[in-house]
Amino acid sequence: MKFSGMKPSLTAALLLVASPCVAAQQNEDDYRHVYLSGGALQLCSSFNPNNCDDADWIDSDNMRTDRYLNISEQFRIEATSDRVWSAYREETRKKVLDALELIHERINEDIVSERVFEREFTRRATLQTYNSLSDAEYAKVIDLLEVPMSSSFPEIVNVEESLDKASAKVFRRFADFAEQNVSNEEKPVVYFSTAGYRDPYSRIDFYQSTLSQLGLEARWLPLDEAVIAARAENRCSELNSVQEELFGAYDRNRVYRDDYQRQVEFCKSGDTEYEMLANADAVFFAGNNANQIRNAFVKDDNSPSELLRMMVARVQQKKLVVGGTSAGTAVLTAKPMISNGTTASAIKNGSVATNPPPFGCDLDNTCPANTGPDTLTYHPFGGLSLFHFASLDTHFSERGRHGRLVRLAADSTTPLSIGIDENTAMLVNLEKGDFDIIGERGVFFVENAQGAANAVAATFHYLVAGASGMMSPFGMQTAEFADGSNIVQSEPTTNFLTDRGLIDSMRVLCGDRKEMTLINKEYRLVAQIDDSSRTATAGGECQIINGKIGMAYQPEEQL
């Protein structure tokens, strides 16, 4: 799939664009090419006042404070029309229509906030219908009921008032990261991508406000999978129809008129993105769906697009730095790219090299063959290939993803895999493998993974914020433990399938214990250290180099 209007000579010229010599160029040992965040970065904003220490600054007359829905008869009929519901979900469609009518009768208003709507939908009389909907079906209903957004009322972020100081600190570090290649008198130009979102417009205001507040020249990069498809099919003028087909996103042209029209014009321009990124100092990939981001920058034959080639070249030349969060981090890998799955399913059923199943696909019968909503799926050819050391996973310890990462590493024979905790980031020099860990929690490294039918095992390392080291594509080379004092405030747990059970329980290995065992439902986890291991505590957490981990599915009838 080629970009229209892009000539090889222009591509070559852009690759050779030289940045002026800048005073801010850091010492070679301190330079970092990529910024990898584990996600869950919660900032105070007018749309999320619960994340604010003080919400008195929010002005509802000038800021977006909620999403509003129109549940009048006209919109209820449109949201449950045959046009947008499959025939085999006819009974569910009728139940949704009945539920919407009941909600309207209870509230007795046409326009309601999404928060009120969800509260009413989850009452006893309509809860069963609510629970029967897949994520895609519920999102479709919200899309078709949504009231148009005015660009005069954007979501505004207030970093200083954020309750979660760790999130604010991680975002501020990205601003410092983006300044590496500019002089002190210049603002770094940062393009942020929302290509991973089903609704590409819903997070524009958030990132625009956040990055601008941090002193960056923030600009939206409108390129996504729908634009690529629309250009190839000469359908830029009907981009909304392409979004329906690819993302299951409805009426975005009605709800976000200005941003939608901006993306249509971008689509028609053909190659504006080359000029954008040729002048960028940094690119930031927001999260949600790694596969969707990949499809915007990698061709159908798994070769990089010309734009991605340009980005890689500029990163190598130290003219561009790249950051990501959540799925925006996972997609940066050149190794097998994880796209879905739980630890329980991964250990029991293994992995599948296929596209991820839709969320809640078991509810509306849209799961592809041989997959379910919890299946571990991955792309064997990697993501954007900007990070060549390891496979990447995010929201890591908080969602108990250790088992799924070990399984992927074992099944794909990947020498090194890395899982990054929430509110945490890792900054990496791609030439030498030097890295620093920042934020609130830690990073989990998996080496030499092996797997059997219902079991996995590996060598692991766990370092927390403040630690640093050097790695190669084959494993950890050196590591310096952190000596910080940040204490994780959450209650400890032994649930290692979906929570921090491994990390919380591992603290005993920094004491007199050499081995620990956890049992969760029909799964067993064993972690141990030996004479080759090193341990150190930091803020109540146990850091380990050269630990051993094993997980197994062991139903009682097999014991």
What key phrases describe this protein's structure?
alpha/beta, nine-stranded mixed β-sheet, 22 strands, Rossmann fold, 20 helices
Describe the protein.
The protein has 559 residues and is an alpha/beta fold. It folds into two domains: 34-53 and 159-553, 3-Layer(aba) Sandwich (Rossmann fold); 68-145. It is 31% helix and 21% strand. It contains 20 helices and 22 strands. The strands form four sheets. A nine-stranded mixed β-sheet has the order 5-4-6-7-1-13-14-17-18, with helices on both faces. Strands 11, 12, 15, 16, 19, 20, 21 and 22 form an eight-stranded mixed β-sheet that branches. Strand 4, helix 8 (204-213) and strand 5 form a beta-alpha-beta unit. Helix 9 (225-232) crosses helix 10, helix 9 crosses helix 12 (257-269) and helix 13 (272-278) packs parallel to helix 15 (306-316). The longest helix has 18 residues, at 90-107. It is globular. It starts with 7 loop residues before the first helix and ends in a 6-residue tail after the last strand. This is Cyanophycinase. InterPro entries: Class_I_gatase-like (IPR029062), Peptidase_S51_cyanophycinase (IPR011811). It comes from Idiomarina aquatica. The active site is at 326 (charge relay system), 395 (charge relay system), 422 (charge relay system). Keywords: Signal.
Going by CATH, the architecture of the largest domain would be 3-Layer(aba) Sandwich
The amount of helix comes to 25-40%
* CATH class descriptor name of the largest domain: Alpha Beta
Whole-number count of domains:
2
User: Given the structure, what is the number of helices?
Assistant: 20
> Uncertain runs with pLDDT below 50, 5 residues or more?
1-26
Structural class, from secondary structure content? alpha/beta
Largest sheet: 9 strands, mixed
> Strands across the major sheet, in which order?
5-4-6-7-1-13-14-17-18
How much β-strand is present in the residues? 15-25%
- Quick one: CATH superfamily of the largest domain? Class I glutamine amidotransferase (GATase) domain
- Spatial separation of the terminal alpha carbons: 53 Å
CATH fold-level name of the largest domain: Rossmann fold
Q: What general outline do the C-alpha atoms trace?
A: globular
Total beta strand runs: 22
**Rg computed from alpha carbons, rounded to a whole number of angstroms:** 24 Å
Mean pLDDT: 93
